[in-house]
């Protein structure tokens, strides 16, 4: 996919953050947009910012498997084709393995992993039928390394990475005209930390302030990096200097990165 003009692009979680910035960036490239979110107000604001583009908005809870499949069929009917799907919707949870509840664990997995998996599978037949499709799944730098108090988020984002990398290989081996990219953002200046669920013993304010300190990249910059990666058919798209650093750390040290993360966490997370 060397040109995005007149392509039909689906973006979940488009009501804010990276999703909103992606919608605007894709509109500037000439895409026709199918935007979804649970936040109808935020979604309307995003659509208003995509001036000049054909935009349709959909209220969608990506934790609802049947709703995702119905959404895929509706988008295909509304636009006649689907070329690009960006499974972006996500949430955060900060809690230790001992402390987090089953409900919180299920909540984050249903959105951050199953939302991506069902979104991919629901749209895949339409992407294949387009003759030039692309799946983009948003993981995280926490899909590259494990971090204390992020076990559930790690589980979801590692799962997204494995699922997506496997799919890319399958599409190549099956000679399907569908590219596949996995995105690993570092700290992005979005509202995800403010909206995160916290364990009972967590100092929510301290954690959010800590996140603000390490959020190095704007959503707009992140969106531009992702769009460039799509056009280059990159298998792994690293977003932000911290993402590049963490990827290098993992590659060079392997599991020996863990003592470094422990030292950082002792200072910043166990407060």
UniProtKB/TrEMBL annotation:
It comes from the Bacteria. The keyword Oxidoreductase applies. PROSITE patterns: ADH_SHORT. It is an enzyme of class 1 (oxidoreductase). InterPro entries: KR_dom, NAD(P)-bd_dom_sf, Sc_DH/Rdtase_CS, SDR_fam. Its EC number is 1.-.-.-. SUPFAM superfamilies: NAD(P)-binding Rossmann-fold domains. GO terms for molecular function: oxidoreductase activity, acting on the CH-OH group of donors, NAD or NADP as acceptor. CDD domains: SDR_c. The keyword Oxidoreductase applies. SMART domains: PKS_KR. Residues 7-191 form the Ketoreductase domain. Keywords: Oxidoreductase. Belongs to the short-chain dehydrogenases/reductases (SDR) family. This is Acetoin dehydrogenase.
């Amino acid at each position: 996919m060397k040109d995005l003009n007149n392509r039909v692009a689906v973006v979940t979680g488009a009501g804010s953050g990276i999703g909103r910035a992606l919608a605007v960036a894709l509109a500037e490239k000439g895409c026709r947009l199918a935007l979804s979110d649970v936040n109808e107000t935020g979604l309307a604001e995003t659509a208003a910012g995509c001036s000049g583009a054909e935009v349709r908005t959909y209220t969608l809870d990506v934790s609802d498997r049947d709703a995702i499949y119905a959404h895929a069929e509706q988008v295909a009917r509304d636009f006649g084709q689907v070329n690009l799907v960006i499974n972006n919707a996500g949430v955060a949870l900060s809690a230790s393995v001992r402390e987090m509840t089953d409900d919180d664990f299920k909540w984050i997995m249903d959105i951050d992993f199953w939302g991506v998996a069902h979104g991919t599978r629901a749209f895949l037949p339409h992407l294949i039928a387009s003759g030039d499709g692309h799946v983009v799944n948003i993981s995280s730098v926490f899909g590259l390394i494990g971090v204390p108090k992020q076990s559930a988020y790690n589980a979801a984002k590692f799962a997204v990475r494995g699922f997506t990398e496997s799919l890319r290989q399958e599409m190549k081996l099956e000679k399907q005209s569908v590219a596949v990219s996995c995105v690993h953002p570092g700290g992005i200046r979005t509202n995800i930390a403010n909206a995160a669920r916290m364990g009972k013993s967590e100092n929510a304010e301290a954690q959010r302030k800590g996140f603000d300190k390490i959020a190095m990249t704007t959503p707009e910059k992140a969106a531009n990096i992702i769009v460039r990666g799509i056009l280059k058919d990159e298998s792994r798209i690293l977003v932000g200097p911290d993402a590049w650093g963490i990827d290098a750390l993992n590659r060079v040290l392997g599991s020996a990165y863990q003592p470094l993360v422990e030292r950082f966490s002792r200072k910043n997370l166990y407060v």
